[in-house]
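Title: Prediction job returns without error message
Component: structure pipeline
Severity: low
Priority: P3
Assignee: unassigned

Description:
Job completed but the reporter wants confirmation the result is attached to the right record. Sequence as submitted:
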Amino acid sequence: MRSDARNPWLIDTRELGRRAGSSRPVNRELPLDTALGVPDVIIVPEGATITLDLLLESVVEGVLVTGTASASTQEHCSRCLDPGTGDVEVEFTELFAYPESTTEETTEEDEVSRLVDDKIDLQPIVRDAIVLALPLVPLCSEDCAGLCAGCGVKWADLEPGHGHETIDPRWAALVERLEDTSGEPADGSDR
């Protein structure tokens, strides 16, 4: 299967023909021209390589594309905010309808992909599949404890027993009064 020199995401399906049952594998590494994902959370960066492992099959109504797409990600842990890297791999199946096929004539324009001049454009399908597969809450590890709410330091970097004792402002006056009458701090600590 040949790709278009101007757009490597376009694949010419003429070699496949319109004989139902014929198939061709397609393996490509294609450049990403714009970043995908949520900036400062998780992205597949611009210029990254998307690896495609596909099977194109001619069916009665069009060309069925099944396979996987994978790429490397740049991410920030949602708990501790540390930067990191990861991988995303997604499986997808998409029918590209032939012009004047029953599928093409009976579906809305945005419900099914279409062949245009015997070419299929994989970029929108792969882009959407990858974006939907990115985790909403990336983590550096499943047991990441995150940041201390009191001081903002990573829990992994703090000593055991770290804490910030605060007194409810509604009780503060009572604590001060108890300290004044007993001569000792109300919380039992040494002065």
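Comment from assignee: result matches the submitted record. The radius of gyration is 29 Å.
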